[in-house]
Specification:
Elements lengths: L1 H14 L2 H4 L7 H15 L2 E7 L8 E6 L18 E3 L2 E3 L5 E9 L15 E7 L3 E4 L18 H22 L2 E4 L5 H4 L17 E4 L16 H18 L3 H4 L8 H41 L3 E2 L2 E2 L5 H4 L14 H13 L5 H7 L4 H17 L16 H14 L2
Parallel strand pairs: 8-9
Antiparallel strand pairs: 1-2, 1-7, 3-4, 4-5, 5-6, 10-11
Helix pairs in contact: 4-6
Length: 411
């Protein structure tokens, strides 16, 4: 249904503008997606609140991300009047299905030092579950809240931070060379009564000389940091952090030393598999539910025009069958990747549509653009360049065709 596809795509792209999608009107939907994934990684979860109604602009549908700290972890009640129970500010029915979220807006005027999420005080608001998308990756059965993705490598991050600070202090101390003067003889003959006889040194100032108090000696102090162990220790810690985050070490540390084509491709491929998995999770927990809620509101308000009418609500199930295409990445060696795809396509082990999707593009859109380009070139009298044969360089295909014609003409 090309007409419906075009109408839905254009309407959703228009809704993605800041003035239509963001309740505050500051960020586009693309910016909100970036905010979503960065906050989930840090906090382990995020709340997306949906606002419906004609008072919310052209599409009557806006969203706002809510800090999960507004769910008080200490707010729990059992056996409520309606049979529901509340656990960590989430209200469940008897089948353990979330029915509402009890959000707390902190009372900042009270000067409370309580952190968000831990006994925070303020005005409590009960929001129905159909207006909240609670997104987190559940590692355990019946897990009610999310855990930060950084929890696994956090200890190593702390160790690395402490090590770098100590190494920096040592390095600065080693660079701050000083000199010391020790007095000999009768001090009464050297100093007047009101003069100092020395000072205790507790800081290193480069290029300075200090007079030591009588009877004191400077102990040997020769800091050597950063030394050869600094790089090895840092690399070891960063490898553990990369493993905990599911990313390639050379990407996290920006360290391309010793990376060749094979190792770089293997590390990048494993990392990208993690990103694709996160994209699929994001589609399931945020994009598809959000689109279905947006679609239902548009069908109710009749905002999506098609021809002389609007999309019919009776076809809602059909219009829900959409696909979100996540971004993809170019290969370590694009030519080798293209040759491999061509071989797979020739052997019928991979479809042309699949190859295009791996590049993060829509096959229908690509073919439509190719057809439009060819039509424009023909209208201008420009003959499109034929694609080269498998394994041939650009420009060889025409020569092969001419040779074939000469062979056919030979008696």
């Amino acid at each position: 249904d090309e007409a419906a596809n075009t109408a839905l795509l254009e309407a959703f792209r228009d809704w993605m503008k800041p003035k239509h999608c963001d309740l505050i009107g500051r960020q586009s939907f693309t910016s909100l997606e970036r905010q979503f994934i960065s906050n989930v990684a840090a906090d382990g979860e995020i709340l997306c609140r949906i606002y419906r109604g004609r008072q919310y602009g052209k599409y009557g549908f806006k969203i706002k991300f809510i800090d999960p700290g507004y769910l008080d972890l200490t707010y729990s009640h059992q056996n409520a009047a309606n049979g529901n129970y509340i656990e960590m500010s989430i209200e469940y029915d008897r089948n353990d299905i979330p029915v509402a979220y009890h959000l707390v807006k902190p009372n900042r005027d009270a000067g409370s030092s309580a952190l968000l999420g831990y006994g925070v005080t303020g005005t409590r608001e009960r929001v129905p579950a159909e207006d909240i998308l609670h997104c987190f990756i559940a590692d355990r059965i019946d897990q009610p809240r999310g855990m930060p993705w950084l929890a696994t490598p956090l200890l190593r991050m702390n160790m690395q931070g402490g090590f770098e600070e100590a190494a920096l202090v040592n390095a600065r101390a080693g660079a701050g060379k000083m000199g010391f003067i020790e007095e000999a003889g009768d001090l009464k003959q050297i100093f007047d009564a009101d003069e100092t006889t020395g000072e205790i040194i507790d800081q290193s100032d480069p290029g300075t000389w200090h007079r030591l108090p009588p009877g004191t000696k400077i102990a040997e102090y020769d800091p050597t940091y950063p030394n050869n162990e600094f790089g090895a220790f840092t690399k070891s810690i960063l490898r553990g952090i990369a493993a905990g985050l599911g990313v390639a070490y050379h990407t996290l540390a920006n360290d391309l030393e010793g990376v060749n084509y094979s190792s770089g491709r293997l590390g990048s491929q494993n990392e990208r598999d993690v990103w694709i998995g996160i994209q699929d999770w994001m589609k399931d927990c945020l994009l598809y539910p959000l689109y279905e809620a947006w679609l239902a509101q548009q069908l109710t308000m009749g905002t999506i025009r098609i021809g002389s009418g609007t999309l019919r609500a009776s076809q809602e199930e059909k219009y829900q069958m959409v696909e979100f295409q996540g971004r993809r990445w170019s290969g370590v060696d694009p030519k080798k990747e293209a040759d491999a795809n061509q071989i797979d396509y020739t052997m019928r082990t991979k479809s042309l549509s699949g190859i295009i999707r791996e590049k993060g593009m829509d096959p229908d859109q690509v073919w439509k653009e190719i057809a439009e380009d060819d039509a424009k070139l023909e209208a201008l009298g420009i003959k499109p360049e034929p694609p080269p044969a498998a394994g041939a360089a650009p420009g060889e295909a025409a020569d092969e065709d001419e040779d074939k014609e000469d062979d056919d003409a030979t008696p």
